[in-house]
Design goal:
This protein has 91 residues and is mainly alpha-helical. The protein has one domain. The chain is elongated, with a radius of gyration of 15 Å. The longest helix is centred in the N-terminal third of the chain and has 24 residues. The termini are far apart. It has three helices and no strands.
């Protein structure tokens, strides 16, 4: 897939999924919700890096897309944890 518009669309909804995933990880954590969100982001980095290493040499599309998945994994899951902390203040 080489259509830049579709790749940007796919990247945008994957970023939204990362935020939702970070929020859910923080929501269901019994302790340290931010740690759980960050761990999920690190898992996303590792899996994205494996995918990037596997697909970039195959030239299935532009290299910026799998690299951007790796780069955006942690910040957006962290954002989900921050949103959880903002909306659910511990009492």
């Amino acid at each position: 897939m080489y259509d830049t518009g579709l790749l940007v669309l796919a990247l945008s909804y994957r970023c939204a999924y990362n935020v939702v995933g970070g929020y859910i990880a923080a929501r269901f954590a019994l302790r340290n919700p931010m740690r759980h969100a960050v761990i999920l982001g690190v898992i996303g980095i590792v899996l994205g890096l494996i995918g990037a290493i596997a697909t970039i040499p195959m030239k299935l599309g532009p290299a910026w897309y799998p690299i951007s998945l790796v780069v955006t994994a942690l910040p957006f899951t962290w954002l989900g944890g921050v949103l959880h902390r903002k909306w659910h203040v511990e009492r």
